[in-house]
Write a structure and sequence with these properties.
The protein has 693 residues and is mainly β. It is 8% helix and 55% strand. The protein contains seven helices and 46 strands. The strands form nine sheets. Strands 4, 5, 19, 20, 21, 22, 23, 24, 25, 27 and 36 form an eleven-stranded antiparallel sheet that branches. Strands 29, 38, 40, 41, 42, 44 and 45 form a seven-stranded antiparallel sheet that branches. Strands 6, 9, 14, 15, 18 and 26 form a six-stranded antiparallel sheet that branches. β40 and β41 form a beta hairpin. The longest helix is centred in the N-terminal third of the chain and has 19 residues. It starts with a helix and ends with a strand.
């Protein structure tokens, strides 16, 4: 009912109006303005995007500060073949010394009564006779029977014992003595005995001659002038064929320097008993408690310079066989001097042995041999003939050693840390980037008991620019004495920040890799302990780059896809009379921004530049005392557009945000929550008309 009443009033009101106005010559259609809003970009750029893209390397702290971190496991640096003993050669000699010969036997000669008393007939029958004096004496020369077991002897000591037995019934006198000579040289006496001596009838007398320095042949003779006063006119019994003057000789207490003789096996062995020291020229040699060889060679050479065969052994007491702990012993069977086998050589693989040293570097060894029996053969030997031993040790590599190990340098396996994760730093933040803090942390573990000095350095390299530089590990962090050790490089204890920042100066870029290189020094304090070739140093290295830096003319680039306009909206664009693009930038970083964007078509062709000339400038958010941005600011810019039709072809928008540290390069810390919000949209206007059709 109310509707009917309202309709009646409306009709009446319209009739009234129509009656009040003149009728126009032409009908006027109603029009009005319509706004169309076209969204182009509405995006928030947060630094957390970096973290989300690479959670492997980009991390956040409890207060959302961003930092880049990479941890690499370090390949083990093993002691390996660095445990060595210097090569050494040693030699020793021994001489046979005074030696024994077979019993030389005795020599003797008989002088008959008629040779002493020429007046007596050689055919005188036995009986009682008066024996006349042979004054002034009868000179007699005769040869001894030969010594049996030598041809010639030279003495350092000993005696020739001559016994004269007077078998005649009268006394005999030797006014000029008894002169003994070599049968080959009777004119030169060797020894003279019994000078002015008297040997009573039927008695014996003995004299001794010192043989030191003398040489005796086996064939000797003697000469003597024998005087006898006779029987003094008293008849004495005489048997001319049974009674003699007998001269005999023997050699006693001999110390022989040289001989051509029959030589028995000597009572005493020929011995070399000596020692040598390893690494004699090292100021701090390896003092060995126990050493196990990994490899190495021992060469042994025994040379016999005695004209006698030798049999025995060489024993190196400090070397023990790994399998049964028996000492290293070599049997020796050595030929006589100048024979084909008078030199014995052997090569020993020390990989089968260990060395027991009782905290020493002294090596003891003994060569002990017995001479052969020459039987009936004569050999010529001297006391200076001897035996020599040569021992050389080479290429000695240690498997394990306990004791005081000499300080040893070991190359540290170069470790590479790939900083590929910094690609976002290098690509997102193009321009002059200066980091405020860097931390390099090495966590090391070792298995050896000894202390190590870690003489290491950090080397950085940028492959693109070719820049390479290195930084030494501080001295106060090099000593590694326990089982684990941590080395930290940061701005508080090193120049690491300036070192890395030096790569970004000018047109430089951050390094793309770091290396840990150098060497370690085993046992610098020369202490007792234990180490093996399998012992190693291993661990990890962590490198952290907090997002706390100053930026100058840095760039943050992004290309985003825009939502394609509907066909209906594209038709409406054809009606547009004018329009505006609005850019709203909300800066949540503590840096000043400059912004520009380009709307791109389907083939990345440029459609509209935003702005057309200079970049937009957006002031920084304020920075708190802790270095973090603590607020935001907004800046809205309207842009008139006459390229409305181009919006129909838009597909992408490329944004470029230029960053520069606020307040003259003050360092700013960045958090995942820090953001730059950019909103771009078009507001287009056209006039709507009612058609008269």
């Amino acid at each position: 009912m109310r509707g009917i009443i309202f309709l009646s009033i409306l009709i009446t009101f319209l009739i009234f109006l129509y009656g009040c106005f003149e009728k126009p010559s032409e009908p006027v259609l109603p029009t009005w303005d319509v706004d169309l809003t076209v969204p182009i970009l509405d995006k928030t750029f947060t630094l957390g995007d970096l973290v989300e893209k690479d959670t492997t390397h980009f991390k956040t702290t409890s207060n959302n500060q961003i930092y880049y971190s990479v941890t690499n496991e370090l390949e083990a640096t093993t002691v390996g073949d660095n445990l060595k003993i210097s090569d050494i050669s040693t030699s020793a000699q021994t001489q046979l010394g005074n030696f024994e010969i077979k019993n030389p036997g005795t020599i003797s000669a008989n002088i008959k009564a008629y040779e002493i008393f020429p007046a007596l007939s050689s055919n005188l029958p036995p009986g009682n006779y008066i024996i006349p004096s042979n004054a002034p004496g009868q000179t007699i020369s005769t040869n001894f029977s030969a010594f049996d077991n030598f041809q010639s002897l030279t003495f350092d000591g000993g005696v020739l014992k001559i016994t004269v037995t007077n078998g005649l019934p009268v006394k005999l006198i030797f006014p000029g003595g008894l002169k003994i000579y070599a049968q080959s040289n009777p004119s030169t006496p060797i020894i003279t005995l019994f000078e002015n001596d008297t040997v009573d009838a039927n008695s014996t007398k003995t004299a001794e001659a010192n043989l030191a320095g003398k040489t005796l042949p086996s064939n000797l003779g003697f000469t003597a002038t024998i005087f006898s006063p006779g029987s003094g006119g008293t008849p004495v019994y005489l048997d001319i064929n049974q009674m003699f003057l007998t001269v005999s000789g023997s050699l006693e207490n001999l110390s022989i320097a040289q001989a051509t003789a029959r030589i028995p096996t000597q009572t005493e062995p020929v011995v070399i008993d000596t020692s040598f020291v390893l690494e004699p020229n090292e100021p701090q040699p390896n003092l060995i408690d126990q050493l196990v060889f990994k490899s190495g060679q021992m060469k042994i050479k025994i040379t016999n310079n005695i004209d006698l065969g030798l049999n025995g052994s060489l024993t190196l007491y400090n070397f023990k066989r790994k399998s049964d702990n028996s000492p290293l012993q070599i049997s020796l069977n050595i030929g006589r001097k100048n024979s084909p086998n008078n030199i014995v050589e052997q090569n020993i693989n020390l990989g089968d042995y260990k060395l027991i040293g009782n905290l020493s570097n002294k090596i003891s060894y003994r060569v002990e041999v017995l001479t052969e029996d020459t039987r009936d053969e004569f050999r010529t030997i001297t006391k200076n003939d001897g035996l020599s031993a040569e021992i050389s040790l080479s290429n000695l590599v240690i498997e394990s050693i306990s004791g005081k190990v000499k300080p040893t340098e070991i190359n540290f396996e170069e470790q590479k840390v790939n900083l590929a994760g910094l690609k976002d730093y290098r690509e997102k933040f193009k321009g002059s980037l200066r980091l405020d803090d860097i931390r390099v942390e090495l966590n090391l573990v070792k298995t050896a008991q000894f202390t190590f000095d870690m003489n290491l350095k950090v080397k950085a390299k940028n492959t693109k620019t070719g820049k390479v530089d290195s930084l030494e590990i501080p001295i106060d962090q090099r000593r590694f004495s326990g089982t684990s050790h941590r080395i930290i490089l940061d701005k508080n204890n090193s120049n690491i920040v300036n070192f890395i920042n030096s790569f970004t100066s000018g047109d430089g870029e951050l390094p793309d890799s770091l290396f840990v290189t150098g060497f370690v020094f085993l046992n610098p304090n020369y202490e007792a302990g234990q180490v093996s070739s399998n012992d190693s140093i291993y661990g990890s290295i962590t490198i952290s780059f907090p997002a706390s830096f100053s930026i100058s003319n840095a760039e943050l680039r992004d290309t985003s896809e825009v939502e394609e306009l509907s066909d209906e909206t594209k038709k409406e664009l054809d009606k547009m009379n004018y329009g505006k693009l609005f850019v709203e930038v909300e800066n949540g970083l503590g840096v000043e921004l400059k912004f520009r964007a380009t709307i791109l078509g389907f083939v990345m062709d440029s459609l509209i530049a935003i702005p057309k000339t200079n970049n937009f400038t957006i002031p920084s958010a304020p920075i708190g005392n802790d270095g973090f941005s603590v607020g935001t600011s907004k800046f809205t810019i309207e842009l008139e557009k006459d390229e409305i039709q181009k919006l129909k072809n838009m597909k992408f928008i490329r944004s470029l945000i230029l960053l520069a540290t606020a307040e003259n390069g003050r360092v700013v810390k960045f958090r995942t929550t820090d953001s730059i919000k950019v909103k771009i949209y078009g507001r287009l206007n056209y006039k709507v008309e009612i058609s008269n059709k």
